[in-house]
UniProtKB/TrEMBL annotation:
It comes from Umbelopsis vinacea. The keyword NAD does not apply. One of its GO terms (cellular component) is cytosol. Residues 230-466 form the Hexokinase C-terminal domain. This is Phosphotransferase. One of its GO terms (molecular function) is fructokinase activity.
Amino acid sequence: MSAWLSRKVSSLNLQELNEFDGSQEQKQALKELGKEFEITTEKLRSIVKQFTFEMQKGLERHGAKVAMIPSFVTGKPTGMESGTYLAIDLGGTNLRVCKVDLLGNGKVEIQQQKYIVPEAMKTGEMRQLCDFIADSVDMFLTEIDTDSYSEALQLGFTFSFPVNLRTINRGNLMQWTKGYCCTGAIGKDPGLMLQDSFRRKNMKVNVAAIVNDTVGTLMAHAYRDPTTFMGIIFGTGTNAAYFEKMDNITKWEDDITSEEMVVNMEWGAFDEERRVLPMTIYDNRLDRESINPGTHIYEKMISGMYLGEIVRNMTLGLVDRQLLFDGKSSPEMNKKWSFETSHMSAIEIDTSSDLADTQYVLETVLGIPSTTLMDREMVKTLCRLVGIRAARLSAAGVAAVMTHCNLLPQDACTAAVDGSVFEFYPHFSHNMMKALKELFGEEVEQKIKFSQSHDGSGLGAAVIAMQVSKGN
Ligand code: GLC
């Protein structure tokens, strides 16, 4: 293995690219890419500044890009909540249906089942999708032997898309993200549509709350740890929610007695006006070919649905310049979305001398006829550039919330985090913390703890359904 590759893979600087022992043209191409994908500390600062500005705008008025949606969730859970609730989670590959028994003392029992959402459902009619959800809930209740019940079951509906809420269980879908694009849904109320499917099937289930996954993640973690102030998703998509003072949500017009409310930021939409995000031609291409061009561009630079596709675009660029794979691609590599983010993870953790796992991904999975060690090293570098940029941009969002809430002078706090990128992408959390240290100094590590949280959409949605049904 070259000295260049044996380096610790958690960081990459432009200096390192000089030591890469490929041809002059290859070196030059990687250096150019390195420059384009670099987020310097100074750049990070300007992104954080714009981020806090857009957060403020979203709190002041309706219709801002970073929507800062009031969630109607006001109370922190105490951990003493009890009762049985249903929760469902729609927003990624699977539909998850759960029965949650809150037992008090921070204890909980969850029974759950996953149902694959057929691709056709994600792009078909919303009414059909809701019927599919109701059927799945029906099946689940039969499987766990709860199909006869006298009182309506209260359900927390984790619907991980931007919904402008009017009440805790009523609101309008603003737009689709993450590859969903059902017809008959935008501007409509997903809670009401699902309720209608339950009614048509004579099921006694009440949609008590529409919950964003970030809000669920925050509440689930807060059920066990009261220092939790933020819920973040770094998964198929990305977004965050945090406790905001009511006085700061100046666009809020109704009366309310509580002092705080969880705000669903919808931060994936940050910088849609393209003032600070350093989008490359590879990002632009991905955006143009996505189902929601021009929107959620921050999400497209960070989250699992998209990172592999950026690397695919870069790879094909180098192939076209005859700098990779002897100028040859493959039908699979030419297919949109074929380079999954999980392939990037496999390549990034491959430290074998001949990069055997990388070879497997490129040749066996993606059908490139043959690769040299140099080819594999180059693709690995592309993955690192995209992975490091994603972690640093993610840190900018976290830093903006910390700055806005003036958290640094305060006691240590916890951000609950869920999602495959955070959990599985090599060095992601390390690189994110590194960027935070550049912004706030070493001591930031003592100020914010990122805690992996798995049960947001189940436990979190159930806790919220419980708060609603008990009138908290
Ligand atoms: C997308 C959705 C948002 C969700 C996030 C993470 O950004 O718009 O509502 O929270 O993905 O799943």
